[in-house]
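User: Show me a protein chain along with its predicted structure.
Assistant: Here is one chain, sequence first, then structure tokens.
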Amino acid sequence: MTAIVKIVWAAGVVAVIALILWTGAESVTRAFASAGFAVAGVTLLRAVAVAAAGLGWFVLFPPSLRPGALACVLIRFLREGANALLPMTQIGGEVIGARALSLAGAPASLAAASIIVDVLVQAATQLAFAAVGLATLSRMARAGGIGGSIALVLALAVPALSGFYFAQTPIGQRLVKAVVARALGEREWLSFGALDALYARLGSIYAHRVGLMRATAIHLAIWPFGALEVWLILAAMGFRASYPEALVIESLMQAIRGAAFAVPGALGAQEGGLVAICAVFGAPADAAIAMSLIKRVPDLVLGAPSLLGWQMLESRALLAGGDAAEANARGKDCRAGFPLSLRGLRRRLWRRFAR
């Protein structure tokens, strides 16, 4: 966690507090309380959506390399919780997810490759969902300034996603290797083994086209499902919003969250974006901020237990690693007849990653 990320996270917290005070803490509290049962409903809907996203990740794996479905679902909750609650960028949860899957027994190269493809599928379907929301807003003749801003975000997202996919192709692999060679010099041979293993895993996942299509279909179904959260919150607050209006709000909010991926938890960006979007449909700022806070409740309710489970998994791995290190210190290297050296440990770690 770098100092810059810490600063951005603190600035996001300050932005949320400032928006609440600017709108009126009392009015935001009343709007939040008026939602009542919707808070529990939103939490349930989010749990279903995250579990479905975990299954979307699960089907990406080729059958011969596939981990357990339950492991994918539980780690998906961990990824979401880490992205929402920890002071790190919104891709930090994906790194933690790859680490957790590796601790659960999957080869590290396979865990990393599956996360990369899953993120690409999720981002591509999110872009499609945002485009549908923008088109729906345009048909309502209410786009205004927010519509132009979202259209610009989508236009910038297309080349970014294309570049992300290009980096995973064989040509992209050569470019990545060239960058690594320039950055690491004589040490590049260590990374090249890991990169070759990673790209081999990527190739096996992309070759499983049925899995890719199934994962895409699942994610395409999840995004509109999330609009039910918005519809439920607005209905509980007393606003008569149609499902298409809720879909527009959810899709454009997700587009803003995607653009603010460098901000931990999209703090401030989500709240400010909802104020602007809800204003298009006549919802006041206090209701928009209350909606944002309600949508953050599942992050805490579902994310906190998953982070606790991750810490337990790390603790178990740390204890197992300590026992192994003690055994190695007492044993002999069977090939050389000498105690296992630091170089030998390093080589074994690289072999493990390159499996």
